Amino acid sequence: MSARDWIDKDFYRELGVSSDAGDADIKKAYRKLARELHPDANPGDTQAEARFKAVSEAYGVLGDPDKRKQYDESRRLFGSGGLGGGGLGGGGFDFGDLFSGGAQQQTSGGFGGISDILGGLFRRGTGGGPTEARPKRGADVETEVRIDFMEAVRGATVPLRLSAPAKCGTCHGSGAKPGTTPRTCASCGGVGLVSRSQGAFSFSEPCRDCRGTGRIIDDPCPECAGAGVSTKTRTLTVRIPAGVADEAKIRLAEQGEPGQQGGHAGDLYVRVHVTPHPVFGRTGADLTVTVPVTFPELALGTTLTVPTLDGQVSLKVPPGTSTGRVLRVRGKGIAKRDGTTGDLLVTLQVAVPANMDDEAKAALEAYVKATEKHDPRPDLTAMLKRDGR
């Protein structure tokens, strides 16, 4: 994308967020739109596909702190409503106005700040003159995958189908029709910038003939229309490591958006969502399970059969155990990367019967009578007496 295209586009509007939105809000908006507009969710809908590409492009800039800062500064100085009000390189913009009184007031930093922006946007070399366009790394991309609880514990290999911008397979990223090659722009000599002088100052601005790319494509590629990038659907195999946690991210190097000018592709980050298990929970590498027990089992003690990931184990419950107590079964949790294994944490919870027959009710009433001198709340009773209640 040329510098002018970058500045003229309103990436904040594409994502539906304000220009002062935080990183978390921008990511949340992108993830919501990406799910709604994904080609898999809208088969055959070209408008949704175009919006999906635009949203991905916007997040590629706003999701990168350095690119976002550069984008904001460039729009403030050169974008719509900025100096001259005509956009970068437009008819209403005149670099000669940079040193007028009004321009100095708007920039508040004079020529130094503007030079920094020009250097970042248009790749001005440190020696002061324009240089060849350097390779640019592609933007990182984020997607999501859902797995079940046991897949997260054991590890899994998951196929991932993606529809995203990728290097055009027809022109291999050159943008030119196969059998032809782009030619160097004669106006700028291939650097993408043209210079002009005004008094003691020399200014550089994007070349209007090549739109800042340094190349002229006379015969564009029919697949990508000269962009060098096209939307493709591809299937990747993602290895989910054993013990992965919910909301964890897995990085696939150079599987993101393709680079420009021969630069490396960005990375693909896969966010993992784990479906909860109906029996087991998880705390780090420890498994958790709640086991219903009866009051006599806690009062008199018993041996329980408790489920694990591999089968069952026997668990001894000491007499006089309180409800809610957590017992630990060592080595029956989730395997860690260092070769050790977490534990199984068993919470004992008294199950109160909803209905009882006459025999059970009579036995319970006899138990109450036999233990009526036992006050299970002595501390509370003493406190109330001290308060005069």
Q: What key phrases describe this protein's structure?
A:
elongated; 389 residues; 29% helix; cytoplasm; alpha+beta; DnaJ; 24% strand; DnaJ_C; HSP40/DNAj peptide-binding domain; three-stranded mixed sheet; four-stranded mixed sheet; metal-binding; repeat; 15 strands
Structural account:
The protein is an alpha+beta fold. Among the domains are: 132-182 and 217-276, Urease metallochaperone UreE, N-terminal domain (HSP40/DNAj peptide-binding domain, Sandwich), CATH 2.60.260; 281-386, HSP40/DNAj peptide-binding domain (Sandwich), CATH 2.60.260. It is built from eleven helices and 15 strands. The strands form six sheets. A four-stranded mixed beta sheet has the order 10-11-15-14. A three-stranded mixed beta sheet has the order 1-9-8. A hairpin with a 2-residue loop joins strand 10 (281-283) and strand 11. Helix 3 packs antiparallel against helix 4 and helix 6 (101-107) packs across helix 7 (110-122). It is elongated, with a radius of gyration of 33 Å.
